[in-house]
């Protein structure tokens, strides 16, 4: 998101002589200072016993206020009351309010007050929040914070905070989270919007709304004249309208939830925020009296059309002069379009450094990115698109949302939901998605963090959806050729070979830490093994497999006792623990991309020993074949062959599939822990 | 934190524009310095020019070459400032490996933000950051910084070597001051200075050249213990009317004590609730404990880093009213509470941290970062850590134990030693009883106790509520196929606390089965130090930081019809690092393993390292061996 110059942050400055609100807002049910003594007596959260603190209520509202000299302003009121159960819950008595500014447009925090309540000798002791406990800090150029530390907090306290944020960013209604790190007993959000603004909203989560209703009522502004200016798609609008009185409808939406438990971390899940119960608003269109409507996100076509026309997006792709030298250089190197495309991607990713930030828009502009030789994902990828375009390739931007930014839906047009752009090239009836942020990825693979279903093509005002994941997997093969001696020691060679996302991850580690440090970490990973010199193949060529080769000098892996030798079937490697140890699962399991994990081991039996017993070969899969496991053990003459192959074809497993997935992994762990038994003949 | 001195007005000969064709090409680095180096300090010239008691000018010229992305953080410039120290100018340049200028950092490239984003509630410290980005490695950055300092209180340290895998081509520190104001200097592992005296100004320079990168080694010293270091402390200074003389510990203490003066008064309303409880007791020690518990119950730790250099405590009345404070605020409040009941105590400065290293005893200065409270009794002193609401009474733990600390008395500072926790008090006992069924499933109960410093192993778990404890325990045990039936964790005891843990679990496929055999792991619930690779080129001494004793018993109840085919032999291994004694017995129905593991603390020559690695390997090999039983 580009928070402070986009059209959804429409800033209105208007002058008007007199204004009043026609109707009062819906009355507040929960009032500051009116707390229930039973909440003070409560000792644990009734619906989430793990909680160290509980949000008793969190009540918010967004509403518009019209004033003589400022026009519309957006007000956000909040009242939050938190119960502290344990000492571990104390940090929840520290509170941070973030608010924004952009140039001369500043948000303000008003009517801030707070209290701590304690039970003392049967009565309620109140301690007011005073100025000594409120600290102002400038976090960065756009963000200010108020940090609040409630006084007199102990186990059992209730703290209460109330404030209003007055905002000039009238197109930016704050999102509301009905779920967070603490359980929330009652969460309520009310949004009041004058008919001039149309907002789209997206609500997500796994819990039902207790209240979900929409009402409307009229309001009136009496005025001599009404003027405004705003920024919209980079075009400045300045208009003056003359009216003596304006009546308009205000639409009110109310949502509330009850007893929503805290978010809990689970392995193989997307970022927690993605699963949080929440509601998000986005300005769809606005229309002032007697004016044409301005559409922003009514339809994906509008989103695409606006992006194309956006000074910070589509228009950046007109700056052909910026890349003339680069284009000439590539034209000099490659003749065929395909190779031009490969060269262009290579050029950007080896000459421009990604700063680690995902974005749909350049940090400032492409000119600056070219000067810096660095930038965010949009700087690099828009630059790549521009170069490809100048190379006469058929390329269009592909806008998407990264894995940790949440899924976008074809049914919910959004511009704020998008936070990434790649290039889509069409060449000889094939399509290639190009990304220039990682030098370690094979051509046409997008980074793991981008794998989030589909992207939308930004071209010709039409919408087309393209899946982001190609055929690539997280793919690893471990091959070992080992000799067992009469004492149960192992000696031999091991080769691991990775491709797809697995190789990209390894390459990234290899290059960022350097070979020596990478080898050291690897040796530490093979705890019991005595690893010799480690060699690497194709480390610098992302198009090939990343291979690691080493010899192990005699290592005591097996266990020798009397006439017997006992040896783990994969010499202690393989799956030693189940990533899904929890009995229950709340959110879907997300593997991000398909997985293939293979082991091929060959053992030579020492002279004078015979195979006493081997683990059984097995093959099993999940009912829908979305994951399968094949494990084969056999012996022939003085050799034992073991092969194990795990394949996961599906990236997301819903909670109803969890138990089967958990058992599936448990069986693999059990299989990988089995023993080979040899006996002296 | 790396604390640079800087000096103004010196010449940067290389900076005379126009720029030469190339600057700091990588080919200029002596080859020996590139071995094992992730980054190389090409040039560091730090100058500190003391103008008067409370005014100094610093400048720094710093050039570093970074060889891989993992070390790219070393190219980042972070200059801290606050109300006392202001940054007058920053210049920055980036060069490629050949030394060609890639970029000059402009004001738009400098991020200005709060220095504390987490951890601390509030601080007036801010930081300016330049974050160079380069697509290719190596690359070089060059910075020039000027700072004007109005506060010279903390003892600044110069540590030219910041990290392992860092080489230094040249690093230089110069200090100048008017006669009589030249700071006292303490150096370690630094060559002698070069002095220039003239015009009433004394100048001294220290320099390090061609220092090769060092590799980090397990159980080795921290970088601070091997890095050259210079500490400087102004003999006299004056801040906001508080004059100080730091030439003796007494003086350091006097000055610190003066910051606490008059901040210990406490309105009687704040002790109403507790007065009767305290007065009812006759034993002073019990009174202290009641008051300590009261403080823990009603206050929480919140870091607000404001006031004189962050060293003046909040007033006791404020802490009482707000119910929170930072370490000095809480200590001062506890001090005030005790004083109300006529109990004498001393606020005590300490350099906290489990591996923070010791203070330099013969260099009186402010080397501290934490405050605790000492309550003297006839026989012993009771030590109170006031920032942790869960801390057992009188227990310091590895955070502040066994080190010099500065007692703030009315007559100034007195160096004292905090208590040490020797081997005989750091004890863990555990008994695991494992009942196997014929399919390899197990039902297991484990009882453990942790005493002394071993208490710290579970200390953080004690703060968890039952639900979180269950979750945490599951992930700590990480046994595949496990169901946690019950978990209980309690603690008791002052001074030397003891935690008792009881677990009940069942494990599906605890033993693996093949060919009529059952392979039962014995080591699942045994704690052992991580394995080490032998290293015949070990450079540094071996440092064992904690001594302890573990007594472990594992009892396996065999399923009916099964009898042992292979059992671990009994085993004894004694070394100067520690010893292991393990015995395995079977009566046919059960197998019982008893193990005693003792670890020593101390420093050993590097040549001992392989023997130590061997000791750990022997231990691991013995523990890893599975019990094999057959039908």
How is this structure best described in words?
- The complex is a heterodimer of chains A (681) and B (631).
- Chain A has 9 helices and 39 strands.
- The N terminus of chain A is likely disordered.
- Chain A is mostly beta strands and 681 residues long.
- Chain A folds into 3 domains: 290 residues, Immunoglobulin-like, CATH 2.60.40; 167 residues, Roll (C8orf32 fold), CATH 3.10.620; 207 residues, Jelly Rolls (Sandwich), CATH 2.60.120.
- The N terminus of chain B is likely disordered.
- Chain B is an alpha+beta fold.
- In chain B, a hairpin with a 5-residue loop joins strand 26 and strand 27.
List the helices and strands and how they pair.
The complex is a heterodimer of chains A (681) and B (631).
Chain A: H1 37-41, E1 53-67, E2 71-84, E3 94-102, E4 105-106, E5 108-120, E6 123-128, E7 134-138, E8 143-149, E9 158-167, E10 176-177, E11 184-194, E12 197-204, E13 211-222, E14 226-232, E15 235-241, E16 245-260, E17 278-286, E18 294-295, H2 300-309, H3 324-333, H4 337-351, E19 353-354, H5 366-372, E20 374-375, H6 377-390, E21 394-400, E22 420-427, E23 430-434, E24 454-457, E25 465-467, E26 474-484, E27 489-499, H7 500-513, H8 515-525, E28 530-537, E29 546-556, E30 559-561, E31 564-568, E32 589-590, E33 595-604, E34 609-613, E35 618-621, E36 627-636, E37 639-648, E38 652-653, H9 658-672, E39 675-680
Parallel strand pairs in A: 1-11, 19-20, 26-33
Antiparallel strand pairs in A: 1-2, 2-9, 3-4, 3-8, 5-6, 5-9, 7-8, 10-17, 11-16, 12-17, 13-16, 14-15, 17-18, 21-22, 21-24, 22-23, 24-25, 26-27, 27-29, 28-29, 30-31, 31-39, 32-38, 33-37, 34-39, 35-36, 36-37
Helix pairs in contact in A: 3-4, 4-6, 7-8
Chain B: H1 31-34, E1 39-52, E2 55-66, E3 77-81, E4 85-96, E5 101-105, E6 110-114, E7 122-123, E8 126-130, E9 139-149, E10 157-158, E11 166-178, E12 184-188, E13 194-198, E14 201-211, H2 223-226, E15 229-233, E16 236-239, E17 242-245, H3 249-260, H4 272-279, H5 284-298, E18 300-301, E19 304-305, H6 316-322, E20 324-325, H7 327-340, E21 346-350, E22 370-376, E23 381-384, E24 404-409, E25 412-417, E26 427-436, E27 442-451, H8 456-462, H9 466-477, E28 482-492, E29 498-507, E30 512-514, E31 517-520, E32 542-544, E33 548-557, E34 563-566, E35 571-574, E36 578-586, E37 590-599, E38 602-604, H10 609-624, E39 627-630
Helix pairs in contact in B: 4-5, 5-7, 6-7
């Amino acid at each position: 998101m580009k928070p402070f110059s986009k059209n959804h942050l429409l800033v209105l400055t208007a002058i008007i002589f007199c204004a009043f609100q026609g109707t009062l807002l819906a009355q507040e049910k929960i009032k500051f200072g009116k707390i229930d003594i039973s909440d003070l007596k409560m000792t644990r959260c009734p619906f989430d016993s793990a909680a160290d603190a509980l949000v008793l209520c969190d009540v918010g509202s967004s509403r518009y206020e019209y004033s003589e000299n400022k026009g519309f302003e957006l007000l956000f009121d909040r009242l939050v009351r938190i119960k502290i159960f344990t000492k571990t819950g104390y940090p929840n008595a520290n509170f941070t309010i973030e608010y924004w500014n952009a140039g001369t447009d500043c948000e303000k925090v008003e009517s801030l007050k707070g209290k701590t309540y304690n039970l003392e000798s049967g009565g309620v002791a109140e301690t007011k929040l005073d100025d000594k406990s409120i600290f102002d800090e400038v976090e960065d150029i756009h963000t200010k914070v108020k940090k609040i530390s409630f006084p007199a907090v102990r186990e059992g306290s209730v703290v209460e905070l109330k404030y209003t944020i007055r905002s000039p960013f009238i197109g930016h209604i704050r999102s509301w989270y009905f779920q967070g790190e603490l359980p929330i007993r009652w969460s309520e959000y009310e949004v009041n919007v004058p008919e001039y603004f149309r907002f789209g909203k997206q609500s997500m989560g796994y819990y039902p709304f207790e209240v979900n209703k929409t009402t409307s009522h009229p309001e009136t502004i009496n005025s001599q004249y009404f003027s405004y200016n705003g920024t919209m798609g980079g075009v400045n609008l300045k208009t003056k309208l003359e009216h003596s009185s304006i009546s308009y409808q205000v639409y009110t939406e109310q949502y509330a939830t009850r007893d929503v438990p805290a978010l809990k971390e689970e392995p193989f899940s997307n970022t927690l925020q993605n699963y949080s119960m929440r509601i998000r608003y986005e300005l769809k269109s606005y229309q002032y009296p007697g004016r044409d409507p301005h559409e922003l996100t009514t339809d994906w076509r509008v989103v695409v059309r606006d992006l194309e026309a956006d000074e910070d997006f589509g228009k950046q792709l007109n700056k052909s002069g910026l890349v003339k030298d680069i284009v000439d250089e590539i034209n000099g190197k490659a003749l065929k379009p395909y190779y031009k495309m490969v060269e262009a991607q290579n050029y950007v990713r080896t000459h421009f450094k990604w700063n680690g930030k995902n974005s749909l828009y350049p940090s400032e502009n492409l000119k600056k990115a070219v000067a810096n030789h660095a930038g965010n994902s949009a700087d690099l990828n828009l630059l790549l698109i521009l170069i490809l375009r100048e190379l006469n390739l058929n390329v269009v931007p592909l806008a998407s949302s990264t894995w940790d930014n949440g899924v976008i839906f074809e049914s919910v047009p959004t511009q704020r939901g998008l936070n990434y752009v790649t290039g889509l090239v069409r060449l000889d009836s094939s399509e290639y998605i190009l990304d220039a942020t990682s030098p370690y990825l094979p051509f046409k693979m997008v980074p793991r963090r981008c794998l989030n279903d589909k992207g939308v093509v930004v071209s010709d005002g039409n919408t087309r959806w393209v899946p982001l994941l190609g055929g690539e997997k997280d793919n690893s093969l471990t091959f070992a050729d080992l000799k067992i001696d009469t004492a149960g020691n192992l000696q031999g060679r091991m080769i691991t070979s990775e491709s797809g996302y697995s190789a990209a991850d390894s390459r990234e580690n290899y290059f960022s830490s350097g070979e020596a440090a990478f080898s050291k970490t690897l040796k530490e990973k093979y705890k019991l093994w005595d690893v010799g010199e480690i060699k690497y193949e194709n480390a610098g060529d992302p198009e090939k497999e990343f291979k690691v080769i080493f010899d192990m000098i005699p290592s005591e892996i097996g266990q020798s006792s009397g006439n017997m030798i006992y040896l783990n079937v994969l010499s202690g490697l393989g799956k030693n623990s189940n990533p899904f140890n929890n009995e229950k699962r709340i959110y879907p399991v997300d593997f991000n991309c398909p997985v293939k994990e293979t082991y091929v081991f060959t053992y030579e039996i020492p002279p004078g020993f015979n195979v006493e017993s081997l683990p059984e070969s097995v093959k099993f899969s999940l009912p829908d074949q979305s994951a399968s496991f094949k494990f084969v053990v056999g012996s022939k003459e003085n050799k034992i062959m073991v092969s194990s192959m795990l394949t996961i074809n599906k990236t997301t497993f819903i909670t109803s599939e969890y138990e089967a997935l958990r058992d599936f992994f448990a069986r693999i762990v059990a299989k990988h822990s089995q023993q080979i038994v040899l006996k002296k003949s | 934190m790396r604390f640079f001195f800087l000096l103004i007005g010196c010449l940067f000969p290389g900076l005379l524009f126009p720029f030469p064709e190339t600057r700091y090409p990588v080919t200029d680095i002596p080859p020996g310095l590139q071995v094992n180096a992730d980054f190389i300090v090409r040039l560091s010239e730090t100058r500190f020019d003391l103008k008067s008691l409370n005014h100094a000018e610093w400048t720094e010229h710093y050039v570093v070459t970074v060889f891989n992305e993992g070390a790219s953080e070393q190219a980042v410039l972070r200059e801290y400032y606050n109300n006392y120290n202001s940054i007058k100018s920053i210049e920055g340049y980036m060069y490629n490996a050949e030394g060609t200028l890639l970029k000059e950092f402009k004001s738009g490239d400098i991020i200005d933000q709060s220095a504390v984003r987490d951890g601390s509630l509030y601080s007036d410290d801010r930081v300016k950051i330049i974050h160079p980005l380069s697509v290719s490695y190596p690359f070089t950055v060059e910075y020039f910084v000027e700072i004007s300092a109005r506060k010279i209180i903390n003892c600044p340290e110069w540590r030219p070597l910041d990290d392992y895998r860092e080489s230094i081509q040249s690093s230089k520190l110069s200090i100048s001051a008017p006669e009589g104001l030249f700071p006292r200097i303490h150096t370690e592992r630094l060559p002698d200075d070069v002095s220039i005296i003239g015009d009433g100004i004394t100048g001294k320079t220290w320099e390090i050249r061609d220092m090769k990168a060092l590799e980090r080694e397990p159980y080795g010293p921290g970088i601070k213990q091997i890095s050259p270091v210079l500490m400087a402390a102004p003999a006299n200074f004056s801040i906001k009317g508080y004059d100080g003389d730091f030439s003796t510990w007494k003086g350091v203490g006097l000055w610190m004590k003066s910051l606490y003066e008059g901040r210990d008064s406490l309105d009687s309303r704040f002790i109403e609730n507790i007065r009767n409880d305290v007065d009812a007791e006759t034993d002073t020690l019990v009174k202290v404990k009641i008051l300590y518990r009261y403080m823990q119950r009603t206050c929480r730790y919140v870091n607000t880093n404001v006031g004189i250099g962050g060293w003046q405590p909040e007033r006791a009345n404020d802490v009482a009213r707000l119910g929170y404070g930072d370490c000095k605020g809480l200590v001062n409040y506890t001090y005030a509470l005790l004083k109300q009941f006529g109990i004498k105590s001393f606020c005590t400065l300490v350099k906290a941290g489990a591996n923070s290293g010791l203070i330099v005893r013969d260099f009186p200065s402010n080397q501290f970062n934490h405050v605790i409270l000492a309550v003297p009794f006839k026989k012993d002193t009771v030590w109170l850590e006031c920032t942790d609401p869960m801390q057992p009474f009188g227990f310091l733990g590895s955070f502040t134990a066994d080190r010099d600390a500065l007692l703030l008395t009315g007559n100034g500072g007195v160096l004292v030693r905090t208590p040490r926790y020797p081997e005989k008090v750091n004890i863990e006992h555990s008994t695991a009883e494992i009942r196997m069924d014929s399919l390899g499933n197990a039902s297991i109960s484990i009882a453990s106790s942790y005493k002394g410093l071993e208490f710290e192993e579970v200390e953080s778990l004690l703060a968890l509520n039952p639900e979180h404890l269950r979750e945490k325990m599951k992930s700590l045990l990480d046994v595949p196929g496990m169901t946690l039936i019950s978990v209980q964790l309690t603690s008791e005891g002052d001074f030397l606390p003891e935690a008792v843990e009881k677990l009940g679990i069942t494990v599906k496929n605890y033993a693996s089965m093949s060919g009529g055999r059952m392979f039962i792991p014995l080591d699942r619930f045994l704690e052992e130090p991580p394995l080490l690779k032998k290293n015949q080129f070990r450079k540094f001494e071996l440092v064992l930081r904690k001594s302890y004793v573990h007594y472990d018993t594992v009892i396996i109840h065999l399923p009916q019809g099964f009898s042992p085919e292979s059992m671990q032999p009994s085993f004894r291994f004694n070394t100067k690092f520690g010893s292991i004694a393990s015995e395995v017995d079977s009566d046919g129905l059960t197998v019982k393993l008893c193990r005693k593991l003792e670890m020593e603390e101390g420093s050993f020559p590097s040549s001992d390292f392989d023997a130590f690695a061997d000791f750990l390997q022997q231990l691991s090999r013995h523990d890893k061996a599975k019990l094999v039983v057959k039908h």
